[in-house]
């Protein structure tokens, strides 16, 4: 996949007060470019029947303007559920050091960080303590609905023959996950659950449509910091 910017929108109110007018205009321009790129990508994905949950989507529909919609029936509604489900599975896997699940649901830089977090969490304990201690990650609630803030899609399969499964397209989407969550440490001497903390994360999900495999979390973004998604081999 050619390198295309995914973008986390930043409101002007959250920018530093001493930021120059020029820099503020640059943020506004980036936000506008992201909206236009979202529309263009939604159009192309729909036109090429590459939404895996609904191959009959119409390109000439108002839905292509609703990348961030949280309403029922929106083109990206299934992806919002996929993102939340994957997020819960990944965080649970980190807590219990489930390497197989982490390798199945992550890729690229994010996989490296997830595996490192799981290893760090469990190697911090002595062998004796590790045998009697377990971590329990819990999602308490959503602080705001899961939302797609940026989406890109284009052809990624260039074989002479059409793929046996799906389409030739690859899709990357930046999903906003704003949650209340906790990580409890359960041991013979302590079993209390900590107060939930609010955590806001922007995760990049990717799906190569010609593989019968799940969406994977490939990277993480932060406000004001676009990335260049890694090239699909």
What best-fitting shape do the alpha-carbon axes yield?
globular
What is the percent of helical residues? 25-40%
Number of discrete helical segments:
5
Question: Strand arrangement, largest sheet?
Answer: 1-2-3-4
Q: What structural class is derived from the secondary structure elements? A: alpha+beta
Overall radius of gyration: 20 Å
Straight-line distance between termini: 8 Å
Question: Averaging pLDDT over every residue, what do you get?
Answer: 85
Largest sheet: 4 strands, antiparallel
Quote the beta fraction.
15-25%
Order of helices and strands: HHHHHEEEE
| Low-pLDDT segments | 225-233
DSSP E strands, number: 4
Summarize the structure.
With 233 residues, this protein is α+β, with helices and mostly antiparallel strands. The chain has 5 helices and 4 strands, in the order αααααββββ. It has a 4-stranded antiparallel β-sheet.
Overview of the structural elements:
This protein has 233 residues and is α+β, with helices and mostly antiparallel strands. The chain has five helices and four strands, in the order H-H-H-H-H-E-E-E-E. A hairpin with a 7-residue loop joins strand 3 and strand 4.
Outline the secondary-structure elements:
Layout: H1 21-47, H2 77-96, H3 99-105, H4 108-123, H5 127-130, E1 134-155, E2 169-186, E3 197-208, E4 216-221
Antiparallel strand pairs: 1-2, 2-3, 3-4
Helix pairs in contact: 2-3, 2-4, 3-4
Keywords:
single chain; 233 residues; alpha+beta; four-stranded antiparallel beta sheet; 5 helices; 25% strand; disordered C terminus
């Amino acid at each position: 996949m050619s390198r295309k910017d995914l973008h986390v929108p930043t409101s002007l109110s959250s920018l530093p007060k001493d930021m120059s007018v020029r820099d503020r205009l640059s943020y506004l321009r980036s936000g506008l470019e992201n909206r236009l790129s979202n529309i263009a990508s939604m159009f192309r994905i729909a036109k090429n029947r590459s939404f895996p949950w609904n191959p009959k989507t119409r390109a000439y529909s108002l839905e292509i303007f609703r990348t961030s919609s949280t309403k029922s029936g929106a083109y990206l509604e299934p992806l919002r559920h996929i993102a939340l489900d994957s997020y819960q599975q990944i965080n649970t896997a980190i807590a219990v050091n489930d390497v197989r699940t982490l390798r199945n649901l992550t890729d690229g830089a994010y996989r490296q960080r997830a595996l490192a977090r799981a290893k760090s969490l469990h190697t911090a304990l002595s062998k004796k303590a590790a045998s009697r201690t377990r971590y329990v990650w819990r999602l308490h609630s959503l602080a705001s609905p899961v939302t797609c803030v940026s989406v890109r899609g284009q052809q990624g399969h260039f074989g002479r023959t059409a793929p046996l499964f799906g389409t030739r397209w690859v899709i990357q989407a930046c999903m906003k996950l704003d949650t209340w969550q906790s990580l409890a440490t359960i041991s013979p001497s302590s079993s209390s659950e900590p107060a939930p903390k609010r955590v806001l994360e922007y995760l990049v999900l990717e799906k190569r449509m010609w593989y019968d495999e799940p969406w994977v979390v490939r990277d993480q973004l932060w406000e004001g910091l676009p990335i260049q998604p890694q090239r699909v081999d």
